Amino acid sequence: MRVTTPDRLVVVTDTPGALLGPAEIRDLAGRLGVRPTKTLGQNFVVDGGTVRKIVRSAGVVPGERVVEIGPGLGSLTLGLLDAGASVVAVEIDPVLARALPGTVAAHLPRVVGTDLFTVVTADALDVDELPGAAPTALVANLPYNVSVPVLLTFLERFPSLERVLVMVQAEVADRLAAPPGSRTYGVPSAKVAWYASARRTSTVSRSVFWPVPNVDSALVRLERRDLPETTATREQVFAVVDAAFGQRRKMLRSALGSLAGSPDRAERALHAAGVDPHARGEQLPVEAFARIAEELAAGAPTDVGPGTVGT
Ligand code: SAM
């Protein structure tokens, strides 16, 4: 099928239904002059089965407002729209962002002239508001180099997000979903746990991407939950997490020494928080980091600054 879109881009489809097929993806990229870059984590999904699996795992329901980060050539965007979602997509690459409405129009003509699809051309890390209804789900094949900061930024800035389903590097998926005490538990695990429970659902072979990356990927599903009950701010808690894992091999007493002002002050705060000063950060759930942050804030002056959303 050949379709001329409003942008006068001729789209050649090789897959029945709404989704993009491998030949069409290459064809589209060729016409747009897109050469996928590593810097922007541009590995496009060329397998319709994977797109369907992501949409299914995300539990998207018709009429739901979904935010997608990094829509690329539109593989997942079409899957989400086809499932009945309305989509706001944030894409940093202006060439890809400009082409998306044409691709959507060619595959899902019913979307044309509606507000079911909007593309925002921006770095997702800079986005603090989105057009249209507040999204309840984030579904994305995230750019690998910024996957954790993007995830944390959106959880922080968009409290309307109840669910997240993201595809990330398998190793990052392990970290996001790791429980305290496990080998992979670290800063991303503890920070994501501030907002949500995380579960790694399935592994995705590198062969579903073009170009093929040199690592496998995995899906992670997050369900937002109530924030831990604490008088400490997120910034204070995240500063404790950063300090605890900044010196991973050290006991908390010394790892938190400079944040607390001295190892002795750190030890007092740890005792008051009910945490063994000789423990290590990898053993603590986020609630314990929150108790430590509370005690540090209540006690000696600290250099707990504004902190960062990302890792
Ligand atoms: N969703 C598409 C798919 O599954 O085929 C593309 C996924 S590709 C792994 C990541 C996409 O994120 C690319 O389109 C890239 O240009 C975009 N991207 C990279 N960094 C970004 C950022 N900071 N903000 C928004 N989009 C970004």
Quick synopsis:
By secondary structure, the protein is α/β, with parallel strands linked by helices.
Low-confidence stretches: 1-12, 300-311
What is the CATH architecture annotation of the largest domain?
3-Layer(aba) Sandwich
Query: Roughly how many Å is the radius of gyration?
Result: 22 Å
Mean pLDDT: 91
> Could you name the CATH homologous superfamily of the largest domain?
Vaccinia Virus protein VP39
The geometry reads as elongated
Continuous helix count = 12
Main sheet: strands, sense, barrel: 7 strands, mixed
DSSP, total strands: 11
Please give the domain count: 2
Strand order of the largest sheet: 6-5-4-7-8-11-9
Strand content: 15-25%
H and E string:
EEHEHEHEHEEHEHHEEEHHHHH
Q: CATH fold name of the largest domain, please?
A: Rossmann fold
Class based on secondary structure composition and strand pairing: alpha/beta
| Name of the CATH first level of the largest domain | Alpha Beta
Alpha-carbon distance between the two ends: 45 Å
The hetero compounds bound to this protein are:
S-adenosylmethionine
Helix coverage percent: 25-40%
